[in-house]
Amino acid sequence: MSRLLPDLQRLEPAHFLPVISMAIGPLRQLSAQQYRVFRDNVVQLIHADRKVDLFEYALHRMLLRHLDPAFGERKEPVAQYYALHRLD
Questions:
Q1: How many CB atoms neighbour CB 7 within 10 A?
Q2: pLDDT tens for the 88 residues of the chain, in order
Q3: Which of 2, 19, 73, 86 could form a disulfide with 68 if both were Cys (CB 3.0 to 4.6 A apart)?
Q4: Which positions ≥6 away from 42 have C-beta within 8 Å?
């Protein structure tokens, strides 16, 4: 992490979510215990300043959506269609 930090500090905010998206695959390789610790640490960091900004909210939702199902924390959502007409 210390080798990556200088590069990460130079990133523009517009690149934060794409970089996090690239990290999803490697994060799936954590053990279940490591993931729980990671997820808890992310939540603690988000709430450290007692406010949640849009980036923190998006980061948290992105991590939960992509990683929770991989670790059995919740099931993958199933799309349900009740009619054949176009969905808008």
A1: 9
A2: 789 889 888 989 889 888 889 999 999 999 999 999 999 999 999 999 999 999 999 999 999 999 999 998 776 667 777 777 765 5
A3: 73
A4: 59, 60, 63
